[in-house]
């Protein structure tokens, strides 16, 4: 199945230019051909083309369905971008495929990359959403100071992963609890969080976690953490419903 993305498809009945070009120029679709469109908000539409145009293909909606995320609660990945932007792009793609609701690039004291335009990451997230047959597009925020994220999610299930062994941590699998309305995981830069950033998070109620004995790249740590959350949720679902 090939999915197209049109956030306002229910109102406009029109594909955006990029998806129109892909449908008409690449796939050679014409009037009367059917296609599948998602709006990034959880709805998938079965449509038929009424006007094939390279810039604004129009459609008629034949049916629609709601595709809720396969995980419960909101998952937030707040990650300090690495120096090489291609790693952040790869991470955004993979987090979208695995399943996440929000991606927040963190600005930390030791961040090597201090500026980031979210538009490129948003395009990568759209492509990954379509490829993985999801209908919910994760929110990609602008670069946000770590202190703002610390305060924002202080009341959630907030987990901070760091490398400093002098500050006690517990393994994520021993700390995470399924069923929370919001789970936020915060991953520091290549040089780790500064001690005062860790202290501020712990004082705000964030729980310190480790992601295993290895030293991981920032983007790898984010993937391991989010994937572990999904696995733990699936395990809970199976144990709560043995007939599954």
TrEMBL record:
Its EC number is 2.1.1.193. Specifically methylates the N3 position of the uracil ring of uridine 1498 (m3U1498) in 16S rRNA. Acts on the fully assembled 30S ribosomal subunit. It catalyses: uridine(1498) in 16S rRNA + S-adenosyl-L-methionine = N(3)-methyluridine(1498) in 16S rRNA + S-adenosyl-L-homocysteine + H(+). This is Ribosomal RNA small subunit methyltransferase E. Its main location: cytoplasm. GO terms for biological process: rRNA base methylation. The keyword Lipid biosynthesis does not apply. PANTHER family: 16S RRNA (URACIL(1498)-N(3))-METHYLTRANSFERASE, RIBOSOMAL RNA SMALL SUBUNIT METHYLTRANSFERASE E.
